[in-house]
């Protein structure tokens, strides 16, 4: 009996050999699959010459994080229209840097690729930024009323209040006779603004000493996502075990705690029947009210997962991208005092003796809008967007890509393409005069992307940039700090790795 039990307990040599053989077959099949996929992708990209690549690292070893933007622009000048960038042995992306190629891709309704968008899911969930297909269309249709003309009108006063808090802080800081780092303060201001406008939430985040925890978490997560892409750390199961993976998870918890508090407070308010009745009587609901009150044909509202995903998405996108746009706008005008003064004079002529902004004022800021657009040309808040081709595409020059390929619209490079923009490195607001704009390719300027998947909040962002610039120029003269020039870096939004430092002179 003991001998029989020992035989059963110990696997035979045949079983061990069979296990080893199956393991070897599995590895060989994976290797064959790898080679087939790589061969297929190489063939798909062979019509598009590009910089030489390493068989394993692709182009990653050639690109440093703080030089990637200019490196891709440089390669774009060498390889017309588009070129492949390999992130590793089997992950190429066709980098598009010409508006005619961009037009072809934007006309499609393709989904977002796994890299980088899948990497964002633990943070912002599957909201409008990540979704595709029918569910994306349903959410887009649901949320569009939150950016209705009449809703945006009521936000101007709230934006103004948030900007004035920031400017009051700056008045105290400039007594130190030091330059002010803008990005942190502008980020808190835009966070305060989006929370008031879209979530009806009074955060007082600009005045609380520890209120930048959410801003820091967003910065950390943005950096870590970019780091994962550069270092080919795509598999969650391995990444989550690393120090950076744990750091990312901790930052996600901080962000989720923040958004959960906003949601729960609004839910509590809506549970009061009188408050609910009052809110539903409003002509237009705000963003969070729409999410909480919406029902499908069967009377079922959004799931908690979908609700949290949209709030996380818009809490991030509604403040971080606009903060980038405003900060780089201030930097551009600090370099060109004549343009800055012309903006100031236009604003003064519109407002007269007022120090408040009204909805009707925004449409009159013609030259100011030109300056905003030119700053977004040079420094687009979102430098690139990606698509995963669900069907083959053929470009205007006859070259094509099969379904299953990934493409990236390099907005930063399109905005600096010498075929479209004369002297693209020079800041010149007159590029956006009506006559010059009319002559330009319709896909040459894409700060909010374009097509069906364009930025749903672009009018909100433009309004906030106008309000912020107008009120700031009434109080301060913006001057650069030559000792601390900004260093461009591409994370999820366009930042400066050492901040954006300006001297502010009280007017």
TrEMBL record:
GO cellular component terms listed in the entry, alphabetical order: endoplasmic reticulum membrane
UniProt-annotated location(s): Endoplasmic reticulum membrane
Matching PROSITE patterns: CYTOCHROME_P450
Segments traversing the membrane: 12-32
Pfam families for the chain: p450
Residues binding heme, per UniProt: 455
Record has Nucleotide-binding as a keyword: no
Gene3D superfamilies noted in UniProt: Cytochrome P450 (1.10.630.10)
GO molecular function, a single term: heme binding
Family: Belongs to the cytochrome P450 family.
This protein's name: CP4B1 protein
High-level lineage: Eukaryota, Metazoa, Chordata, Craniata, Vertebrata
Gene responsible for this protein: Cyp4b1_0
């Amino acid at each position: 009996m003991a001998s029989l039990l020992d035989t059963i307990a110990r696997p035979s040599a045949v079983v061990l050999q069979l296990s080893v053989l199956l393991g070897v077959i599995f590895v060989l099949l994976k290797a064959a699959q790898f080679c087939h996929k790589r061969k297929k992708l190489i063939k798909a990209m062979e019509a598009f010459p590009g910089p030489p690549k390493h068989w394993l690292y692709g182009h990653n070893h050639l690109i440093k994080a703080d030089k990637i933007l200019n490196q891709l622009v440089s390669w774009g000048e060498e390889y017309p229209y588009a070129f492949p960038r390999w992130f590793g042995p089997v992950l190429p992306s066709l980098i598009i840097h010409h508006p005619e190629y961009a037009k072809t891709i934007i006309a499609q309704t393709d989904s977002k690729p796994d890299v980088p968008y899948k990497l964002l899911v633990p943070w912002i969930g599957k909201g409008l930024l990540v979704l595709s297909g029918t569910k994306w269309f349903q959410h887009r249709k649901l949320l569009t009323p939150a950016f209705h003309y009449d809703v945006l009108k009521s936000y101007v006063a709230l934006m103004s209040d948030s900007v004035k808090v920031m400017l009051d802080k700056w008045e105290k800081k400039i007594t130190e006779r030091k330059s002010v780092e803008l990005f942190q303060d502008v980020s808190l201001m835009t966070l305060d603004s989006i929370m008031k406008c879209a979530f009806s939430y009074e955060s007082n985040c600009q005045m609380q000493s520890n209120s930048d925890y959410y801003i820091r978490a967003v910065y950390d997560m943005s950096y870590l996502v970019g780091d994962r892409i550069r270092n080919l750390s795509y598999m969650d199961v391995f990444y989550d075990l690393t120090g950076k993976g744990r750091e990312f998870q901790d930052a996600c918890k901080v962000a989720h705690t923040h958004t959960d508090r906003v949601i729960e407070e609004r839910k509590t308010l809506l549970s009061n029947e009188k408050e609910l009745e009052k809110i539903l009587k409003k002509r237009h609901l705000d963003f969070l009210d729409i999410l909480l009150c919406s029902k499908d044909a069967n009377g079922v509202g959004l799931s908690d997962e979908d609700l949290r995903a949209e709030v996380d998405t818009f809490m991030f996108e509604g403040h971080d991208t606009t903060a980038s746009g405003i900060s780089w706008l201030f930097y551009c005008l600090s370099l060109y005092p004549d343009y800055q003064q012309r903006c100031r004079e236009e604003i003064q002529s519109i407002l007269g003796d007022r120090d408040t902004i009204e909805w009707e004022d925004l449409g009159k800021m013609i030259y100011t809008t030109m300056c905003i657009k030119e700053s977004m040309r040079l420094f687009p808040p979102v430098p690139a967007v990606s698509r995963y081709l669900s069907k083959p595409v053929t470009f205007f020059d006859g070259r094509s890509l099969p379904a299953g390929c990934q493409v990236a619209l390099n907005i930063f490079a399109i905005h600096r393409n010498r075929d479209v923009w004369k002297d693209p490195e020079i800041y010149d607001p007159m590029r956006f005069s009506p006559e010059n704009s009319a002559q330009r390719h319709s896909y040459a300027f894409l700060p909010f992307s374009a097509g069906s998947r364009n930025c749903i909040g672009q009018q909100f962002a433009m309004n906030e940039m106008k309000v912020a610039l107008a009120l700031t120029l009434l109080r301060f003269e913006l001057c650069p700090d030559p000792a601390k020039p900004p260093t461009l870096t591409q994370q999820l939004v366009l930042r400066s790795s050492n901040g954006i430092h300006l001297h502010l002179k009280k007017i």
